[in-house]
Amino acid sequence: MIGSVIFAILFLIAFGFAFKKYSRIRRNILLGRDVTIEGPKSERWKNVLLIAFGQKKMFKRLLPAIMHLFIYVAFLATQIELIEIIVDGFTGFHRFFSGLLGGVYTFVINAIEILSLLALVGTIIFLVRRNILSIPRFNKPEMKGWPKLDANIILIGELFLIVGIFTMNGADVLLQEMAPDKYPDSGLLLISSVLGPAMFGGLSFETLAALERVGWWMHILGVFGFLVYLPYSKHLHILLAFPNTYYSRLEEKGKMDNMPEIMNEVKSMLGMVDAEENDFGDELPEFGADDVTSLSWKNLLDAYSCTECGRCTAVCPANITGKKLSPRKVMMDVRDRAEEVGRALDSGNVDFIAEDKRGEGVKLTKENFDDGKSLFDYTTPEEIHACTTCNACVEACPVLINPLDIILQMRRHEILTQSAGPSDWMPMFTSLENNGAVWQISDSREAWTKD
Amino acid sequence: MSDIKVPTMAEMAAQGQKPDVLFWVGCAGSFDSRAQKVSKAFVKILNALNISFAILGDEEACTGDPARRAGNEFVFQMLAMQNIQTLNGYEVTKIVATCPHCFNVLKNEYPELGGSYEVVHHTQFIKELMDSGQLTMKSGESFKGKRITYHDSCYLGRANNIYEAPRSVLAELDADIVEMQRHKSNGLCCGAGGAQMWKEDEPGNKRINTERTEEAMKTGAEIIAVNCPFCLTMMSDGVKAEEKQDDVMVYDLSELIVQQNQL
Question: With respect to CATH, is domain B9-129 assigned 1.20.1050?
Fold first, then answer.
């Protein structure tokens, strides 16, 4: 009874806290500029099914794909048992589903046990890969410190959950024989019927009952822990992979987004329309993106969906050849900046209001926000200059994140708004403007046909 | 050598004619001495099959690809709108490009600016000619027993998902086709895209073309086949840097066909 009350309180605290945290992440994502997502819904759902649910892109690397699949399927299947655990928590009604489902119940619990064992193998292999084997993509500069710890916390959390489940079921198998009236028959559990007696055989009824509760609490506290920890972690992909694949662009990867806002200006420069209709007004607007508020919300959803696996960076030609650019770091930078802006907005501190917009009673909003920083304080020009726009990072991402889109928007900001950029490019631009060719060449374009 | 016939759109229009297809030559194909050979090779194929085509010649401008990828949308749109005016003026319906960057921009990015055409890359065009029976491979000894590896350009491959057309053209040659470890959607860039061609590398420990050329040479191939004038430059430079220019040749696909058929 007291157990139920404690459970209910913890349940409410965990969900209440999580709700607040997830709302904040939603708000941060919506700091991004609005953008209409085009293309048929059927194609989008296909991406969700194949790429998020089906993990199609994971299978570009077979071993991690299989290990990840174990953990993922175990995670999905355990949700069934989680319902039962929650019912137990609120009502004290033990193994609620066993009476309802009979043989099916035994099958489901066995499936969960086998998957949990496979997930255990996967988790241990992942811990070894992260910490013992020197796999380059887990040891890049951007992974030092918190990102590495974050990954390990998640993996150790998984171990905690799995140990909890087997402790609970192992003790339960023995208890079912001792007190069938209090512990309903789960049927033959392939793993726990061996593991239970091996670990806990010969212990007293009271000890076993306590162990069963320890396992139960480990599992449910682990779940609450995950729920509350996720918003602080890179692990949000378990939720955001689904909307992220749904909202991913369907066009050819080679197509860059157009900038319709300058089309009239260009037309008037070419004398194709009258100049008057094409005024930008008093001040030239900003072009491209230098902050999370000028990126699109989809770019920010990408950033929050990134689990820092580094497959993008592992295939990036610039990164492979020792340049600073790392597509994964671009995504981490965008998320870190979104967090920073979000925290500043939450503070309500009027010092964050742009100087020319301050005034009596003016409140801090994302529109008047200016902390004197930008995305360029995170991702340097040197990094974005190294990109060959080869789309390898876009192709590699298992959840359809597009780092290239962000890099290109930052390049646009640099060239169009800051009038900066690599000086090597200036002769190319000049030649294009003057001669319509990328090289300063005085020859006729037809000369090659005649020699 | 100069027995190729390359009419311009202006010349044809003056005679009241309109070609079936416009050959988009691009800056590299027009001005780069190595890429000019590819333009000529492709024209030889077109001429041999009596295909009705023309170029824009002096009326062609850069598609704007490097400007757009560098971030200079103004210059891109200026060039694009001029080109679209020219193309629409001639009522062009079909374009074939030997450069995948031009191909990508013409196909995917001009429609939003008012220029919609059927656009194919020359490797697709050659594949069509083979499929329709117009182009047949002569049985020659040119490539017998030779190893060829094919380098996917980013803008034909990942950017537009064209992996099979060039490979099926290569398959018609009597050669051993070997794949590099990273190929098709996993192919590695040559290092030129995204306007890198026009700037020095950022600080690093290796050049991208060296990385890619080493991979190509690991296959033991005597020929590296490419589909892009910039890959052609990058891979040729890579081979030269390894001092292997006498053992490993870099050719565009169209050049291999010209060699096989002795055009």
Answer: yes
